[in-house]
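Quick illustration for those who missed Monday's session on complexes.
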Amino acid sequence: MRVCIVGLGYMGLPTALLIAKAGHQVYGYDIDIRKIDKLKNNELPFTENGLNELFEDAKANFKPIHSLELTESIDAFILSLPTPFTENKRCDLSYIIAATKSIAPFIGEGALVVLESTVSPGTTMGTVKSLIEDTGRIAGKNFSLSYVSEKAIPGNTLYEMVNNDRIIGVLDTESEVLTKEIYSSFVKGTLHITDCTTAEIVKLVENTYRDINIAFANDLSNICAEIGVNVWDVIKYANRHPRVNVHLPGPGVGGHCIAIDPWFLIEKTQSQIVEIARNINDSRPIHVTNEILSICSKKGLNNPKILVLGVAYKPNVDDMRESPAIEIISELIKVGMDVIVHDPFVKNIPFITIADLKEAISLSDVVVIATNHSLYYEYSNSLNNKIVIDTRNISIPGSYLLGRDF
Ligand code: SAJ
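Prediction with SAJ bound:
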């Protein structure tokens, strides 16, 4: 098949290369001209485990393009575009709308359009379908349509894209046949077929399930601290039950998925539990900040130097999108605290950063563990004479531990 991927980001580019490696002729389009130029120069625009090797294997069938005005006809377009989060907590479809309008003139008779982005329910059968139909074609008659989400996690993207099951939403039988022809060529997991809106909701439910579970763990950490027991032990032992899987408490939920997708799920409807969970998790950075301030004041510290360890939203990645650490640091600075930060992965941190961890520790009076990067476990002994506030249970004797002490 001749497949055109629109949007060569963290998901779109690996998908394009996997399809190309499987033997299809793939065209990769992105509005970012620099990205296309890089790919044409044999350079990848970002790193991911195994991506270099995949690029080598896929090159013969992969063509980065500056314009959608192709001479060859395309059998399938795959839209893999960002859906930002608006200020009023809604799914911003502007990239999808623009991309759908730009591919619409090139959708030939019988071609397939696949939406891969995370969207609010009904987007494929609503916005995408009607924008294409505005050009005079009818879905199911002149073109096919489907929704396919991915569930890959940074660092393990390629493995998960190939091995995870896929939930594929289709308009009709022809859409199913064409979509399976593409995805069965590189996915080893099972392809489950349903309708487009169900598949969109499934993607949102996966992350909402985790958000609600983490909110429960966070609530539990408040309960345990009030009673004076260790929430980490409580969860560890509760999870010995074969059907219990309580997630872990922490300073908040970061990243561009779990902190956002639940809002898309309830965009057109209402749910108490989803909203409560979101609000519990969103309130965590402030809860932790207040606790840091209260510990400093209890200890009689006047203008202490506070070192925050980790600004990434989770361990061993360089991604600080929606990171709770950012909010904690900003709040501390806002109330006049003297804050320095360290992170072994994140570049261009917008706060005073000390690159050398030993030096950062020696400069500080109070150390806040915001992210459990592996490196910090090795340094737990160097923190002995510091006031340590641990939000991730990295086990430092004498520390103030979230879910036991606050
Ligand atoms: N967190 C907790 N407690 C936990 C687990 C996580 O506080 O028990 C926090 C983390 O510290 C982090 C945030 O939640 O700040 C999210 O981290 P994560 O690793 O759980 O999730 P993401 O956002 O990196 O990736 C998720 C994954 N979804 C699920 O596990 C259901 C991934 O599979 C998806 O591909 C991704 O969202 C996505 O693209 O939707």
